[in-house]
Structure formats: C-alpha cells, structure tokens
Amino acid sequence: MTVASGTALDPARFAIAGMAPRAAIRPASREELAEALAAAARDALAVVPWGGGVALGREAAPERYDMAIDISGLDRVVDYEPADLTLTAECGATLAALRATLAARGQELPLEAAFAGRATLGGTLAANASGPRRLRFGAPRDRILGARFALADGTLARSGGKVVKNVAGHGIHRMLCGSRGGLAILLEATLKLMPAPVARVALIYEATREQMAGRERWGLLPRLEPALVTALGSAGAGWDHDAAMPASVPQRGATAAPFTVIIGLEDDASHVDQQTEAVIAALGLPSARLEGDQASALWQRLADLEEQDDVRLSFTTAHNLPAAIAPLLDRPESARLVFHAPAGRLHLFPPAEEAPGLVALLAERGFSLIDARGGADLEPALPPQVAVGQLRSRIRAALDPGRRLGLGERWERSGF
Question: Does 227 share its domain with 354?
C-alpha cells in the first residue's frame, strides 16, 4: 500500500464496529489531503474521513475500510466577519473552539452536536446533526452558505459562497450535509451566525406518567416559543438521571418521578422574564432553575445524551408537545428516551430485540424513523425505499464513481 501524505497514526484508534483500517493519517493541509486521496485512488483503497469520532465508532462497519483520514489538523478559522454574521472555518475545528471565538463578539454558532469539545465542524455537517434547539437554529444544511470539499480521487472543489444571498451554482454543499462522509470530504465551510441571546433560563420539572400524557398540561408551551422543551425518560435500568444533569441541578433521590421536562428560554431579559412567569403560572414552580452559563451547560448535556453506546432509534414527528410520547409511557423497553418536542425529534435506546416493535408502534402514531444505529434488525418494520435508493445510487455514482469512500455504502442503502 502506498504511504500517503500526512502524519501516520495508530489505525486501532479509528476502528468502526471493531473493524480497524490498514492505515491512518492526519494531513496538515487540504493539498496534503488531496494528495493522500489521489494516492489511495491509485491503489484502489477504501477511505473513511474522521473528525472527533463522537459517533463514527458506533456505526455499522463499512464493507471496505483500508484507510482513515483524520481531518483534525485542518482547524483554522479562515474568515470571520462579525458585521455580516458569517464565519468560514476549516472542518477539523471543534464546535467548542468555534463557540469560544464567537462568544467574545456576542455571537453564536447555530450548530449543536454531542460532546462539543471533540465534535468537529465537518463531522457535525456530515451528520446533519442537531440538538434540543433544532427548531430555533434549523438543521446544519439550513445554516451553511458554502463549502470546499475533496472528492474521492483527490479533486478539490467548492460550492456556494460566503454571503447569505449567494445563489450561484448547484447547492452541493447542502447535499453533503447528512451524507456521513460517503460522497466527499468536507474541508472548509461558511456558516450563517446568530447574535447570542442576552438571557438564558432553564426550568426543570419532574413529571409522572399521568402528567406526561396530559396534553392540556403542556398546551401553552408552543405559544410561548421556547428555545427548547426536552423530555427525558429516566426510568429503567441503565439511565442515571442525576448523572445526566449538571452538578448544579439538585439530586432527586429514589422516589422521584420517572420523567423530566426541561424548558429552555432564550431572548432579551424582559421577554425571558415574561415567558418564565407564564410557564410557572401554567405548570407551577420548577424543581430547579438554571440561568446563564449553567443553562448553556445543560443545553450541551441534552445534546450529549443523544450519543450512547447502545441501539439508538431516531424519529421525526409533527407532534410538538411532551404528551406525544404517551404511547411509550407504559413500555419499559422504551424508558430511556430523549424527546426534543418543539423540533419533533425523538431518540430511543431500547434493547435490540424490541426495536422493530417500537418502530411499528410509533409509525402508527405519526413518528417516522430517520436513523437507526447499533445493529437492530429493522427490515420487517420498514417500508421499501426503492426510489430513494435509486436516487442515492445515481448521486454517489456521479461524485464517487470508483466507490472509494467507504461510508458511501451506508449512506446509499440506509433509506432513512
């Protein structure tokens, strides 16, 4: 195998479902990365790009996996225009580092992902990842203005631009969001930013099954337009509620209710005060209240809870109240859940053997499966995705005709 450009790394660090590549490298520039891809194409090697490795190690093993390319060496802020609310950065930069750069100017990166200290910009975009504030921020493909990327043969290309009104050319940069690194390797991206809110408040409520199922209890929340409403299922073995919360949240004890609902408010101080008063009038006093940096830490922790080492089923739904999870409340196999209600995103962590039944049950209640991880056999519970598969095959053939990007098979066949 040809020795590619870049620093050689231990291949064992880049195993996917127990499958390690034959080699791993970290390029120091996009030109070095392009050289490595060209060399891999000449040797007919299958390549997988890596960012922070937050989720990739728990994906299904690719059919072929010869080389890992770690993009963490490409971590510069290329251009930052505070007045225009735009940022261009290399895709190996972590979300935490980018947030720190923007915080000094009172601005916010509108991206969320688990473990922001490790999660890279490229990995977040490739996964089209979002957290509890998806309704506020939109998906990553909604925030990206343009990108530079490398095709599997080493060709460097770009799409879009650096201004909000740029509409020239095909929006390939948006298509790469959610492609899981199976179509091209994202190298640099330009994003629309947001002003940071002046005030943040988290109101934390404990709820019984009966309270969770009552639609009238939660009916006020959509009208208040909170930044987030996240329901956590804290019953069942393996879910440690107190460990899930920041240290500033009081410990609950053994007799606490099995569900927790976090209501997040963000805006100018007077509006947040008004929202807080309205929530307390409807729901009563919360069991805990956090503000400022403590609330921000809780937002991140809620995103972290989406990544666990077990089977994970992710659903989307038009239902936007905590009561939407009522069909699951009496099923112990679904006790571990994270439901970002305004965004309509539900993540379940059931035993593998229970996954097909849960998919079928939720499909009847308006939930559509959008992702599955961890080896559950879901074929009997899923409708055929022939048209989607054919379209993805054509897209992959256009961007990676040699089928050199190892994660392309996963993207092409997933049907989600």
Answer: yes
Residue 396 lies in a domain: no
Closest CA to 15 of 74, 60, 71: 60
Write the single-letter amino acid at 305: L
Of the pLDDT bands very low, low, confident and very high (cuts 50, 70, 90), residue 412 is confident
In a domain, 405, yes or no: no
Are 225 and 182 found together in one domain? Answer: no
Is the pTM higher than 0.85? The answer reads: yes
Tell me the C-alpha distance between 314 and 114, whole Å: 15
Q: Are 402 and 152 in contact (CB under 8 A)?
A: yes
For 347-400, what is each residue's pLDDT tens digit? 999 988 889 889 999 999 999 998 888 776 675 666 666 677 788 889 999 999
Domain of 132? 77-196
Residues 225 and 192 occupy one common structural domain: no
Per DSSP, the three-state class of 275 is helix
Residues 6+ apart with CB under 8 A from 231: 207, 212, 259, 260, 261, 322, 325, 337, 338, 339, 341
As for how many domains the chain has, the answer is 3
Q: Is the pLDDT of residue 415 over 70?
A: no
Q: Which of 196, 223, 246 corresponds to the end of one domain? A: 196
pLDDT tens digit sequence for 283-295: 999 999 999 999 9
Residue 341 has pLDDT above 80, yes or no: yes
- Least Cα distance to 130 among 347, 410, 324 occurs for 347
Residues 186 and 231 in one domain: no
pLDDT tens digits for 131-161? 999 999 999 999 999 999 999 999 999 999 8
Task: Give the integer Cα–Cα distance in Å for 13 and 9.
Answer: 8
- Which range among 26-40, 54-68, 322-336 shows the weakest confidence by mean pLDDT? 322-336
Alpha-carbon gap, residue 225 to 152, rounded angstroms: 43
Question: Which residues, 6+ apart, have CB-to-CB distance to 340 below 8 Å?
Answer: 131, 132, 134, 228, 229, 230, 302, 346
Read off the CATH number of the domain in which 188 is found.
Answer: 3.30.465.10
CA within 13 Å, CB half, 89 = 29
233 and 338 share one domain:
yes
Angle formed at CA 407 by CA 70 and CA 62, multiple of 5 degrees: 100
Question: Hey, what are 413's tokens?
Answer: 């066949």
Q: What pLDDT was estimated at residue 250?
A: 59
